[in-house]
Amino acid sequence: MSKILIVEDEQKLAELLKDYLAQSGFSTTVLDNGLEVVANVRENRPDLILLDLMLPGRDGMDICKEIRTFSNLPIIMVTAKVEEIDRLLGLELGADDYICKPFSPREVVARVKAVLRRSGGATTIQTKGLILDETRYQASLHGTDLGLTAVEFKLLDFLAANPGRIYSRDQLMDKIYSDDRIVSDRTIDSHIKKLRKKLAAVAPDEELVGSVYGVGYKFI
Question: Whole-model pTM?
Answer without folding.
Answer: 0.56
